[in-house]
Amino acid sequence: MSNLSYTPEQPKASTPIVLTIAGSDSGGGAGIQADIKAISATGGYACSVITAITAQNTLGVSAICPIPVEHVESQLDAVFSDLNVVAVKVGMLADSDIIKVVAAKIQQYQPRFLVVDPVMVATSGDLLLENSAISTLKSALLPLADVITPNLPEAAALVGGQIPTSEADMTAMIADLRQLGAKAVLLKGGHLEQDENSNDLLITHDNVQQLSAKRVQTRNTHGTGCTLSSAIASYLAQGNDLAQAVALGKQYISQAIAHADALDVGQGHGPVHHFFPGHNNVR
User: Which Pfam family is one of this chain's hits (predicted)?
Assistant: First the structure.
């Protein structure tokens, strides 16, 4: 007689699904392409809604074609009606109509976490959001966010001020950034290139936490904002609280930048290295 043993079936872990809503970068270094790489590298499952198609490479953006708003809406319905989306990362939205439909669908489907990277300007300096759409972004979408992740030029555009040139200037923006209505703001200090460290401020309603990393001297920084915000969304989807998710995201992007020169992509601002050696250990 054979001796059969029974092992109870283990409950299946829920897949941490992260939706990125953003534009496509034909060069592969930013936008939807960077988001999918970052979410995958950090342990999430990436799905996507494309809001615009850009003709883009490491040298710049040569054309932008917004996706018709009704097709953005149909993509959102297709994803949300089938997949258990835990976290959403929003990047390039191009115009007011797309912002409005994204905000409406976020309110309809109520994902647990919303990370908004207010993409306005590419690393190359090209404008990625119509000026007329900034007010729509502020009124319709930012108040829904768990965290927004502006760099210094984006923060200045959102609050109608000057671009900070020092950490003191960053601190002076805190009150105005809180007025945008998001639960938290991660103000990124990467543009203060004269500083030895790259310091960010995680601003909540009643606290400010500084996150610091050694500044890496490289021109290969294309897609850093997309990558960081996607990593934060991925870590939130995996059960980390906001402070933990931001700290892990900062650690991941710092290493992706540090390893960027190991890649040889393009003639301009090359991409960061999303799948750097040991990336699976950033948890």
Answer: Phos_pyr_kin
